[in-house]
Design brief:
The chain is mainly β. The chain has one domain: Acid Proteases (Cathepsin D, subunit A, domain 1), CATH 2.40.70.10. It is built from 3 helices and 11 strands, in the order H-E-E-E-E-E-H-E-E-E-E-H-E-E. The two termini are 30 Å apart.
C-alpha cells in the first residue's frame, strides 16, 4: 500500500517538476536544539559509523540502518530536533511526511498549500511542498531538503530520494543500509 502511494507521488512530482517550494519553519514552541523528542520508537535504530567534523564544526559521518524483521529499512531521523520514524523508500522522489509527523515537527498545516494531488492506499489525497532546513539519520546530515506533507492517507513518513540522493552514496547489504554523507 505504501508502495502505491510512493509511485503516485513520483508520477505527480515528475509531472509538476518539484522545485524548491515553501520554506516550512517550525512553530515557536519547537525546540530546534533538542536532541530527543518525546516519542519513543520501537524497532531497529541506526548504528553510527565513523564521524568527522565538517566546515561548520558539525559532526558528519556514516550511519547504518539495520533491516527490520518485516524486511524494510526503518530509519529514525531528526528534523528540527524532533525524531521522525521513516520508511526508507528509494522509489519515492521526495521525503514525504505524514500530517501527524508534520504537526509534531511544528509545521502549521493551515498555512500550507495542499495543491498536489496524490493517490495513497487510502484513496485520493492532496500534498503540500515544504522545505526542511536539515534532516539527519544518525550522523548522515543533509541540509535544505525538499519534502512534501500528505495531510491524510499516508500511514508512515517516507525517506525518499530528495534526502538519499544528496548523500555521497548509500549502499545496501543483506542486513543493513549504509548512508555516507
Amino acid at each position: 500500500m505504501i508502495r502505491l502511494a510512493a509511485i503516485a507521488v513520483i508520477g505527480i512530482l515528475s509531472a509538476t517538476g518539484m522545485a524548491h517550494g515553501l520554506m516550512a519553519q517550525p512553530a515557536a514552541s519547537v525546540d530546534a536544539d533538542s536532541r530527543t523528542g518525546s516519542d519513543s520508537w520501537r524497532g531497529p535504530a541506526y548504528l553510527r559509523g565513523s564521524e568527522t567534523s565538517d566546515a561548520k564544526g558539525q559532526v558528519a559521518g556514516d550511519a547504518e540502518v539495520t533491516k527490520a524483521v518485516d524486511g524494510h529499512f526503518w530509519a529514525d531521523g531528526q528534523v528540527y530536533g524532533r525524531r521522525v520514524r521513516f520508511l526508507v523508500d528509494t522509489g519515492a522522489t521526495t521525503v514525504t511526511l505524514t500530517g501527524d509527523d508534520a504537526k509534531r515537527l511544528g509545521l502549521d498545516l493551515a498555512s500550507l498549500s495542499f495543491d498536489i494531488p496524490v493517490h495513497t492506499a487510502h484513496g485520493e489525497g492532496r500534498a503540500a511542498r515544504v522545505h526542511l532546513a536539515a534532516l539527519s539519520v544518525g550522523s548522515a546530515r543533509v541540509e535544505d531538503v525538499d519534502a512534501m506533507v500528505v495531510r491524510q492517507g499516508l500511514s508512515t513518513s517516507l525517506l525518499g530520494m530528495s534526502y538519499l540522493g544528496r548523500l555521497s552514496r548509500f549502499e545496501a547489504t543483506p542486513e543493513a543500509l549504509i548512508l555516507h554523507p
